[in-house]
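Data card: per-record layout.
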Amino acid sequence: MKLQRVRMLGTASAVAAAVALPVMAAAPASATQGACANYVRSHGYLVGPKVNAACSHGALFSGVIKVPNAACILGLTRAGVNKGEVVQSACMRA
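The structure for this 94-residue chain is written out next.
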């Protein structure tokens, strides 16, 4: 009986860790990627894999200023986001 409880506890712990770890690790990155994609969407563009991939390139912070990532700008432009201010602002949110 005691061995069965230990096994159940071990299994439950492993499942909890398997579920919680990816969520904790992905939360900051997906939040900023989501902000970028939502900004693009709010300006009338369809958001699909290309926009999401572009928004996955986070803004760069030098310690003094934050600048949009060139890979994000290029990716959004290639995805068909034409307005420069939308691209710049979206990539600042990434």
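Known properties of this structure: Residues 2-42 form the longest helix (41 residues). The helical segments are 2-42, 49-55, 70-78, 84-93.

See the next section for split statistics.
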